[in-house]
Amino acid sequence: MTATTSPGPVIQPPSVLLMGGAGAGKTYSLATLAEVGLDVFVIVTEPVGLDTLVDVFDKKNLMHKLHWHQITPSRPGFEDLTKAGKLISTNTYETLAKMAPSGNRQNAKWLQLLTQLANFQDQRTGDSFGPVDAFPATSALVIDSLSGLNLMAMDLVIGDKPNAHQGEWGVAMGLLEKLLLALTSGVKCTFVLTAHLEKETNEVTGATQVMASALGRKLAPKLPRFFSEVVMAHRLGESFYWSTTSANVDLKNRSLPLGDKLEPSFKQVIDAYSKRLAAATASRPAA
């Protein structure tokens, strides 16, 4: 029997959930991805998220490493909001929940998001870079932030309907869960998702913990399992840090050390991945 050589080791690139309050330095730290040599592709879902991104990359002379596409959650125009307001003014809470989804959901930004993931269009240069699941390990894909994804998913499910019932919440959460599974296990480059914070009850332990702000109560506790690192960004006075040990916060670390005042940099994560990949490759028998 002739032996065949299997493909090289499959070491999944890092996936980082970077949580923190407004002004905690989450977006600012994205420049450290470029500082270690990665080409950074950012999908911006925050209305003013592009401001900080451009400022920090420009300040560090790293604009040539930055590619972005901004997709804010709201659909254009106030006609849809007017229709929703009229529904609210003439119906009860129970009636609104029972209504069918309304509005032109084919214009939902969730679909635009998937289009960009299928073929990233850089709004800085006008270039197309193809599907993100074909990006090489020399790239980093960032979605800034989960809060925008939450709104996009719910808008796709209910459209202009003012109030979602339990089943519709479940559909929206399912959309997010499938997307994050694809981004953390189906891409070949580093993936970073930023998120705001929210207190949730851990249904397993019953304790109140700080978690990523996600749709519903059941999705947030599931998020850490998708990521190799779950880190909290925070500020003390004029200094910014990352933490992997903050009390009552659902965190996770594989490459980063334990600590509450870590340097807010992706360098250690990328370095650990490179060493892991080199070790796995070196362990292969010679051809």
Please describe what this structure looks like.
By secondary structure, this protein is α/β, with parallel strands linked by helices. The chain has a single domain (15-281), classed as Rossmann fold (3-Layer(aba) Sandwich). Helix content is 32%, strand content 18%. The chain is built from eight helices and nine strands. It has helices at residues 31-35, 49-59, 79-90, 93-98, 109-118, 146-158, 166-185, 267-282; strands spanning 15-20, 39-44, 66-70, 139-144, 190-195, 197-201, 208-212, 229-236, 239-243. The strands form two sheets. The chain has a seven-stranded mixed beta sheet with strand order 3-2-4-5-1-8-9. The protein has a two-stranded antiparallel ribbon with strand order 6-7. α6 crosses α7. The radius of gyration is 21 Å and the shape is globular. 34% of the residues are buried. The mean pLDDT is 90.
The topology string of helices and strands comes to EHEHEHHHEHHEEEEEH
The strand order across the widest sheet is 3-2-4-5-1-8-9
Mean pLDDT: 90
So how many helices? 8
User: What would the CATH topology be?
Assistant: Rossmann fold
- Per CATH, the architecture is 3-Layer(aba) Sandwich
Biggest β-sheet strands, sense, barrel: 7 strands, mixed
Number of separate structural domains: 1
Low-confidence stretches: none
Helix/strand class: alpha/beta
**What's the total count of β strands?**
9
* Helix coverage percent: 25-40%
Radius of gyration: 21 Å
CATH class: Alpha Beta
The general outline is globular
Straight-line N-to-C gap: 17 Å
Query: Which oligomeric state applies?
Result: single chain
Question: Which percent band covers the strand fraction?
Answer: 15-25%
